[in-house]
Design a protein that fits this description.
The complex is a heterodimer of chains A (334) and B (321). With 334 residues, chain A is an alpha/beta fold. In chain A, 33% of the residues lie in helices and 20% in strands. Chain B has 321 residues and is an alpha/beta fold. Chain B has helices at 48-56, 82-88, 101-104, 111-122, 128-141, 158-169, 188-205, 216-222, 240-245, 250-257, 297-301, and strands at residues 6-17, 20-32, 37-41, 63-72, 75-76, 94-97, 176-180, 208-213, 225-230, 233-239, 307-310, 313-315. The model of chain B has no long low-confidence stretch (mean pLDDT 92). Classes of the chains: A alpha/beta (334), B alpha/beta (321). The interface between A and B is large, with 41 and 47 residues.
Chain lengths: 334, 321
């Protein structure tokens, strides 16, 4: 879709889908034979280039976390393809995929839940190497120290024998970042890495991600609901709504020239820390509908302030390039 | 100049635990004029919720007001006994929307029962039907369909629960509403809807508000004045316009540059080095000195006092002459 990018993308996904079957109660299964699904991710396509931070933004329930888990093959997709440097990894078995798995890492949202409280920091960071059969203890020690240094937990000796409960939230998230880096990955999914942290230390983790990208040529999928933060770290952003991508483009295109009415509403809803800023009081009504039964046609039409008519209710808009790789799925632009 | 509606003077609130006293709020002073909104900001654990609980006298076990005055229309409400406080102040004059609307409602009672309970507890002469009727009116006021009052909390979405909580807080026509983290755990769009509702209520009912949040942008969108707290103390207090335009305390400056602004140019965000202190044993002198870029010798030994640097702009820092 982007002609001037010559090299192959690191990750490319095509029409990726994940439908979770809905468990019905005993009586409902007797009455209706129809299997219902939660359409968490319903056909999304994008590419993440080498050394790129790609942001996936949307409200809760938009499917952004499921998309991240799909990319890491933590959940099997219902349909679609995942290509890693041109190689189709969708159908690979866990055994075939294992050598590649070390290239894919994740930083979870909750640093209080993602570190084993009974393991020392050393063991937490060493565990991925043990799983991948690095037996040389001196090598392991060296790489743990380096990971801690990379994550700015210095001096490493001061941290290796501690337990997670002895660290602050920000330090824990650094440990999680160090652990994600220790196998020299190419691609890291960062799922809301700062939403549980205090405002005063968020910037640290984001700056760290930014620096590591350049230092180790890693690409990130940055999943967030906070557009103001996404804007500060991401190169490109995709806006998700009910399992679909509504708009995708460079960060500046999304922030300065949003096209989709949903993106515009999201941007208008972001509070601004400047009391002199002009406040736009058009707030769209309602909340995100259930992904079990998403609205017909364009999924956003029930809340859309710029609905043009029947077409929005009947026909699902396709995602088109409005120029310069700025993609939008809306009937206003077809 | 008229008297402020709420005037908190040198409030000190501690929690007694096994290991000693948690000095959660130390020497906090600020005031709120009638019809205005005050934003209380700071990191988690800085004592902002404790101030709210002290004002309403609903501190959890172990918590107590050690000193200071809380003047509401010139009456020191911190000295009232529990019976008098419940009869005359709590919910009738001052009410609160608790943090985490998702979990603050009782899941096994209908919303209407919960609102009626709040009304009859504070106004014993109101019967149930009158209470439900008042609840319906409140639902309309906060933008909910009045017929939904007979629903259970699980039938409401997050934004609707937050609105129901606001309706419940308004049940006895309070003059002052405290909203603890009204936007947290809500999606951006729903958060914007709730903030808009709070602004409208302030206009329509002449309600005074205290909004507790860690999000500075929420304060700039809804408040007239702001108090920035750090480790149990108020670092800076003043008009929103003045504080946001020219933050004077190094902590406020740090918070502002740690905060992303989607409308402004893309700059590198700066965080504040270190982390907040343990309030069992707060640092000597200025509590911010271990993290402060400008710390001097005097900061380590002497506690700064709050000074009015400009008109309605108070700062507690040794850098201020």
């Amino acid at each position: 879709m982007d002609g001037n990018r010559v090299t192959e993308p690191l990750i490319k996904i095509v029409n990726l889908k994940k439908w979770f079957p809905l468990r019905l109660g005993f009586f409902s299964t007797l009455v209706s034979r129809k299997q219902l699904y939660v359409r968490a991710v319903d056909g999304i396509s994008f590419e993440v280039a080498e050394k790129e931070i790609f942001g996936l933004a949307g409200e809760s329930g938009s499917g952004k976390t499921t998309a991240g888990r799909l990319l890491l093959k933590l959940v099997p997709p219902t349909g679609g393809e995942i290509l890693f440097r041109g190689k189709n990894v969708t159908k690979m078995s866990e055994k075939e995929f294992k050598p590649l798995r070390s290239k894919f890492q994740i930083i979870f949202q909750d640093p209080y839940g993602s570190l084993n409280p009974r393991m020392t920091i050393f063991n937490i960071i060493a565990e991925p190497m043990r799983i991948y059969g690095i037996k040389d203890e001196r090598e392991v020690e060296k790489r743990v120290s380096k990971a801690l240094e990379d994550a700015r937990l210095v001096p490493p000796e001061e941290f290796i024998n501690r337990y997670p409960h002895e660290l602050s939230g920000g330090q824990r998230q650094r440990v999680a970042t160090g652990r994600a880096l220790v196998l020299n990955p190419n691609f890291i999914v960062a799922d809301e890495p700062v939403s549980m942290l205090d405002v005063s230390i968020r910037a640290d983790i984001l700056n760290l991600i930014y620096e590591l990208k350049d230092k180790y040529d890693v690409s990130f999928l940055y999943i967030t609901h906070d557009l103001a933060l996404a804007r500060h770290v991401c190169d490109r952003i995709a806006i998700m709504y009910l399992g679909k991508i509504m708009e995708m483009g460079t960060t500046d295109q999304i922030v300065y020239e949003p096209l989709h009415p949903y993106t515009k509403s999201l941007m208008a809803a972001v509070p601004v820390p400047d009391p002199t800023a002009k406040r736009i009081d058009v707030v769209i009504k309602g909340e995100i509908p259930s992904p079990v039964n998403p609205p017909q046609g364009c999924r956003f039409h029930t809340r859309c302030p710029q609905k043009i008519g029947d077409i929005c209710e009947k026909k699902e808009p396709t995602i088109i390039d409005s120029g310069n790789g700025h993609l939008v799925a809306c009937h206003l632009y077809t | 100049m008229s008297q402020p509606l709420l005037n908190v003077k040198n409030l000190v609130t501690y929690y007694k635990i096994l290991r000693g006293y948690v000095k959660a709020v130390e020497d906090a002073s600020f005031y709120l004029n009638e019809g205005e909104a005050l934003g209380l900001a700071g990191e988690s654990g800085c004592g902002k919720t404790t101030i709210a609980l002290s004002i309403l006298k609903i501190l959890p076990q172990g918590g107590f007001i050690k000193g200071g005055n809380i003047l509401f229309r010139d009456i020191d409400i911190s000295k009232l006994d529990e019976h008098e406080f419940r009869q005359n102040i709590r919910w009738k004059k001052i009410s609160i929307v608790f943090q985490g609307a998702m979990n603050a409602l009782n899941p096994v009672y209908k919303i209407s029962d919960q609102i009626v309970e709040a009304i009859t507890l504070h106004e014993p002469n109101v019967n149930k039907d009158e209470g439900v009727e008042r609840g319906r009116k409140l639902f309309e006021l906060v933008g909910l369909d009045p017929s939904r009052i007979e629903n259970y909390p699980h039938e409401f979405s997050g934004g609707m629960k937050q609105r129901a909580m606001i309706a419940m807080a308004l049940a006895c026509n309070p003059e002052l509403l405290i909203a603890d983290e009204p936007g947290t755990a809500l999606d951006v769009i729903v958060q914007a809807q709730v903030l808009k509702l709070l602004r409208e209520l302030k206009e329509k009912l002449g309600l005074s508000m205290i909004i507790i949040t860690h999000d500075l942008s929420i304060i700039s969108e809804t408040c007239d004045s702001t108090a920035i707290m750090y480790a149990g103390k108020i670092a800076e207090f003043g008009d929103v316009a003045s504080v946001f335009k020219e933050p004077l305390h190094p902590y406020t400056q740090g918070l502002m540059s740690a905060f992303p602004n989607i409308k402004a140019a893309r700059t590198r965000m700066q965080s504040i080095a270190g982390f907040p202190p343990d309030l069992l044993e707060p640092p000597s002198g200025c509590r911010f000195h271990p993290r402060c870029k400008f710390a001097m010798d005097v900061c380590r030994t002497k506690e700064p006092v709050m000074k009015e640097v400009k008109k309605k702009h108070y700062v507690s820092c040794h850098l201020m002459k």
